[in-house]
Amino acid sequence: PSDIANQGLGENIAPCSSCHGAHGEGNAAAGFPRLAGLGAPYLEAQLDAFASGARENAVMQPIASALSTDQRSAMATYYSQLSAEGAQASKGQSDNPPDTGAELAEHGRWANDIPACVQCHGPAGVGVGEHFPALAGQPAAYLEGQLRAWRNGKRPGGPMGLMASIAAKLDESDIKPVAQYFAAQ
Ligand code: HEM
Ligand code: HEM
After folding, report:
1. Is 121 in contact with 169 (CB distance < 8 Å)?
2. Nearest Cα residue to atom 3 of ligand 1
3. Which among 43, 44, 57, 59 is the best mutation to test ligand 1's pocket, defined by most ligand atoms within 8 Å of the CB?
4. Tell me, which fold does domain 99-183 have in CATH?
5. Per residue in 102-150, pLDDT tens?
6. What are the helix (H) ranges across the chain?
7. How many CA atoms lie within 13 A of 79 on its CB side?
8. Which CATH number is associated with domain 2-80?
9. Whose CA is nearest to atom 19 of ligand 1?
């Protein structure tokens, strides 16, 4: 897997590191997500979803489809084992006042049946276990894109459809602030 990560494979697979960074830290400016330290089952499910087309993304679809099932699994294990330390590419970067998205992230909005994001994603979005991915330090544009993908049916809803249901309940005006909040953690 480290060969594929750093050198790519044939014509169809550019090195993962060219977008996701040499240590899987992602690229805040370009909006490429961090992979380091996310759970292996989560990463594998994402690669499988790109390969099947259930998660729509023009860049990742051909890459994931060109990998075999075993290679997708191996890449997921590889990135899950890279240190999350220092993988927060966008740490400290936010255009919004820190408390705009914080309220939703930390307390949710029960009037609209929206639970606190940190209930599943951990304090400040550090991630919990292998199935609840870290949001901390993911590029804001990436996080925003995922919330929109669920609202538009372009990404599978996640376990029990949890994220599709939460994303659907957000106000349009919630999306940027909450994305910025987690990006800056
Ligand atoms: C997303 C793995 C190569 C651009 C992802 C995700 C995974 C992944 C697991 C989902 C992350 C998450 O859900 O948090 C890989 C692997 C690669 C590879 C294993 C090499 C074999 C690349 C390359 C590029 C790229 C070369 C750029 C040309 C992206 C982008 C996304 C993404 C833009 C976000 C997709 C979206 O918005 O849904 N990648 N990647 N990746 N990757 Fe890659
Ligand atoms: C994934 C945001 C609340 C469970 C994600 C992702 C984002 C996100 C952006 C994608 C991460 C990535 O692609 O790397 C939020 C926000 C929340 C929230 C802004 C609050 C408004 C919750 C809650 C739960 C939850 C309360 C649990 C009940 C999950 C799960 C995934 C996920 C299981 C992985 C989905 C998958 O496997 O595709 N969330 N989340 N989230 N979230 Fe949340």
Report:
1. no
2. 16
3. 59
4. Cytochrome Bc1 Complex; Chain D, domain 2 (1.10.760)
5. 999 999 998 899 999 999 999 999 999 999 999 998 999 999 999 999 9
6. 2-7, 17-20, 40-52, 60-66, 69-80, 99-107, 117-121, 140-151, 162-169, 172-183
7. 32
8. 1.10.760.10
9. 75
Model ipTM?
0.95
H-helix or E-strand spanning residue 91: none
Q: Which residue puts its alpha carbon closest to atom 37 of ligand 2?
A: 158
Task: Calculate helix-pair angle for 99-107, 172-183, nearest 10 degrees.
Answer: 90
**Ligand 2 mean position, distance from CA 169 (Å):** 13
Which of 107, 163, 165, 174 is the best mutation target for the ligand 2 pocket, counting ligand atoms within 8 Å of the beta carbon and taking the most?
163
